[in-house]
Amino acid sequence: SDRHDIRLSLASAYRTPTVMQSVTGAQGLDPVYVEENGFPVERSWIARPDLAPEKNVSAELGYRGDFGNHTQLRLTGYLLKMEGIIDVAPEEISPQYYAPVQDLLTVGAELGLRYEPLRWARFDIAQACTRDLERADPDLGGTYPLLHGSATAWLRPWPGLVIHTSLRERTAYTRTITE
Question: pTM here?
Fold first, then answer.
């Protein structure tokens, strides 16, 4: 209807390795030795064509409702799957400097409220919670959510002048285990 929307979004993307990630021996690492004509030859870097791009897939389901009294409610849930995230690799994963070191599966939800009492004034409040499902800390017994909050005020007292202020907060929930 004119006052309520439901949306579904699916997307996929990839990120190719940077030039720095595509070579071994970069950033002051020990030299790399390659074989040329049966003899080892020292190189300061060597190309890594085997380093595959990172891949991600995301899905999002959302609702937006306008309630006629200058109030809008937004609710969104999402899922993000990232594969082959390239980072500095520990020696046991790869003797190369950069390698695919992890996959991530993140879920989250966001709740937002907008109040627009006048044509020239708008106030937004949003709260989001995300949780990484694949990076569980076995010592803590699982993953813990991250909360993201924001409050925004937008004022346009006359044409050509916009006053915008925003406050953002990010809190990681943790717990201490004592024996």
Answer: 0.64
